[in-house]
C-alpha cells in the first residue's frame, strides 16, 4: 500500500520539509475520483455498471504505459527490463475479468434498463483498448471508422498504427542473437499476457450471452457472437506454438 508516503506533488526540494504531509485521500485524489465515478447517484446498478467500465479504462491506461516500456526495452535489447513490464499484465487482465463477475450479479431487468440508457454508446468505442491492440501488433485500420470516435481519438489510433509495435520489437529481439533462454522467457511472458486477454474476452462474451442471448449488443453490434469471435484473436501470434 502507500505506507508512509509523504511526498507532496506540488513542489520538490527543500520546500517539502516545510509542507504538511499529504493524506491518503489527497495522494489518491479521492474527492475528484469519486465525483467522476458518480458513486452518489440514486441508481446503484448504474453506478456499478459505470464504475466497472471506468476501472477498465484506468487499467487500460496502465497497460499502455507498461507495453510502451516493454517495447522500448526489447528494441534496446534489454529482455529483463521488458519482462518486468510484461509481468503485471496478466494479473491486470484477471482483475478485469473478475469485474464481470460483479456485473453478472445484476438483475436482467436492471441490465436491460441501463442498456437502453446507453443508446448508441458501446464498449466497442473504447479508444484505449484499441490502442492496446494496436500497440501489441493486432492492427485493423477499419476500426478507425468506429462510430463515436472523435477526430482526436482517430489521431491517437493513427499514431499507434504508424508507430512500432511490441510484436515487431519481439521479432527483432528474437532475431538479434539474444540468449535463447531469455528469448524463451520473453515469448512465454507475451503468451501468458495474450492468453489472459483471450480469457477476458471470453468472460465478456459469456456475460453478454447471459443477459442478451443471441440478441444484438449495444450500438447494434453482434453482441455475444462478436465477442466469442474476438476471443480467438491473438495479440502476439508468434508467441504461440506454430504448426
Automatic annotation (TrEMBL):
Keywords of the record: Dioxygenase, Oxidoreductase
InterPro entries given in the database record: Trp/Indoleamine_2_3_dOase-like (IPR037217), Trp_2_3_dOase (IPR004981)
SUPFAM superfamilies, per database record: Indolic compounds 2,3-dioxygenase-like (SSF140959)
Gene Ontology biological-process entries: L-tryptophan catabolic process to acetyl-CoA; L-tryptophan catabolic process to kynurenine
One Pfam entry name: Trp_dioxygenase
GO molecular function term, any single one: metal ion binding
PANTHER family in the record: TRYPTOPHAN 2,3-DIOXYGENASE
Name of the molecule in the record: Tryptophan 2,3-dioxygenase
Organism: Streptomyces zhaozhouensis
Amino acid at each position: 500500500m502507500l505506507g508512509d508516503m509523504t511526498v507532496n506533488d506540488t513542489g520538490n526540494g527543500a520546500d517539502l520539509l516545510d509542507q504538511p504531509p499529504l493524506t491518503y485521500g489527497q495522494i489518491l485524489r479521492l474527492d475528484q475520483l469519486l465525483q467522476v465515478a458518480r458513486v452518489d447517484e440514486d441508481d446503484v446498478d448504474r453506478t456499478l455498471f459505470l464504475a466497472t467500465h471506468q476501472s477498465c479504462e484506468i487499467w487500460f491506461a496502465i497497460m499502455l504505459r507498461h507495453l510502451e516500456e516493454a517495447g522500448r526495452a526489447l528494441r534496446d535489447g534489454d529482455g529483463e527490463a521488458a519482462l518486468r513490464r510484461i509481468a503485471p499484465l496478466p494479473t491486470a487482465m484477471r482483475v478485469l475479468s473478475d469485474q464481470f463477475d460483479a456485473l453478472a450479479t445484476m438483475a436482467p431487468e436492471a441490465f436491460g434498463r441501463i442498456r437502453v440508457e446507453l443508446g448508441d454508446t458501446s464498449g466497442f468505442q473504447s479508444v484505449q483498448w484499441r490502442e492496446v491492440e494496436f500497440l501489441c501488433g493486432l492492427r485493423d485500420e477499419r476500426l478507425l471508422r468506429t462510430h463515436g470516435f472523435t477526430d482526436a481519438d482517430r489521431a491517437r489510433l493513427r499514431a499507434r498504427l504508424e508507430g512500432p509495435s511490441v510484436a515487431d520489437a519481439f521479432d527483432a529481439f528474437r532475431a538479434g542473437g539474444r540468449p535463447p533462454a531469455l528469448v524463451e522467457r520473453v515469448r512465454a511472458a507475451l503468451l501468458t499476457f495474450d492468453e489472459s486477454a483471450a480469457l477476458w474476452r471470453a468472460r465478456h462474451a459469456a456475460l453478454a450471452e447471459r443477459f442478451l442471448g443471441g440478441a444484438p449488443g449495444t450500438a447494434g453490434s453482434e453482441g455475444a457472437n462478436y465477442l466469442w469471435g474476438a476471443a480467438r484473436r491473438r495479440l502476439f501470434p508468434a508467441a504461440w506454438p506454430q504448426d
